[in-house]
Amino acid sequence: MRFIGRVLGMAVVVLAAVWLGLWWWTESQMQDGFANWAARMQNQGNITVSYGRMNRGYSPLAASVTLTNMQITVQPNPARPPVSVTLPSFGMEIDAADPQILHYNLPGQITINTPRASVAATFGNIALTQQIDLDALANKEIDPFKASDFSASNINLLASGGSLLLLHIDSINSHATINRAAGASGSALNWTDDFKGISLSPLLTRLGSVPFGGSVTELAVSMNLSGPVPANWDALVEQFNALPAANRADRGKIMLQAARAWAAGGGNASASLKLVAGPSTLNASGNVKFDAKAQPSGTADVTADHLDAFSAAITGAYPQTQDRISAIQAQLSPYLSSSDSGGQTLGMHVVYGAGTVAINGEKVSDLPPIDWDALENPPAPTPQAPGDGSGAAAQPPVVSGAQ
Hints:
Elements: H1 2-43, E1 47-50, E2 54-56, E3 62-74, E4 83-95, E5 101-105, E6 109-113, E7 118-122, E8 125-132, H2 134-138, E9 145-159, E10 164-178, E11 187-200, H3 202-207, E12 215-226, H4 233-242, H5 248-264, E13 268-277, E14 280-290, E15 296-304, H6 307-317, H7 322-332, E16 336-339, E17 343-353, E18 356-359, E19 362-366, H8 372-376
Antiparallel strand pairs: 1-3, 2-3, 3-4, 4-5, 4-6, 5-8, 6-7, 7-9, 8-9, 9-10, 10-11, 11-12, 12-13, 13-14, 14-15, 15-17, 16-17, 17-18, 18-19
């Protein structure tokens, strides 16, 4: 019995040592991961990331890292002042009970400083998690995650030191999944966002005479991209991030080349939108697929109800929009109808491909082919002649008096 007790005791000691080693390694990986992310951001040339301290956690039941006074500064245009986002604390945590989920501990208030004003975003609840892709982690891929979830509730955007409410949102929910191994028929990226109860403050609603109480009941968007995912995706991301943000031409070329390879390999996508504002509900959805020559075809559907009540509320609040709204109604008149239940409704079914675009069965325009070579290699801009920009200064002088 004494021997068995010693064996069990040694086993416990070994397991504890392994666990502590794994816990220490996990926290080191979290530190390195954040440092690598910050470096990637700063290499773009228009983003800086700073923080006060980075502290490791002490609980053996959770690997954690916490940063204090984290600030992200973005300056897209060097000639203009930057925009900064400040978080008093920012944490990352992996619990022993669920080691494949990375939790981000976000503060209840985030400060945003812009050249015009300083605003604060406050949250009743906020949560962000990402599911770790173990294969991607083992291969040291950039952002080794296969799913993420974000939720927040009771969100307020405040100005004047927190005394002036600008905007309120009841809730935000977001979900995304990523499959790096997706083929042409598999989903590579699926993403959904749902905002509910978006409303301007009563003061701004009154000052701006905003209809519908300054509120949007719901805004929901979703997107699905199917494969094939380029085999060298990580290398493309590194190549893209290595270029300064100001180098839009070369960055755009990398993105176009990746999009062309995706399209030529049978890439396809779909998206949807739902907007509920005032009396009206707008639903829109569409899809696209590409043939072997990377040429698109697909369909789109748009419906909306109670447009008469919606447009009446807009023109009642802003009479100057009457002519513009009337012009839009005239353009959409072939697709408008009326019913007792839906009021004035819009119904459009768009089919495009093979050189044509049709709406509700009627051809409305031609569809020119995509010239990928021209998109990837746009002509260089014509140098402007010195002077007033007219080019006159570039003309040869006129010699008069010659016989």
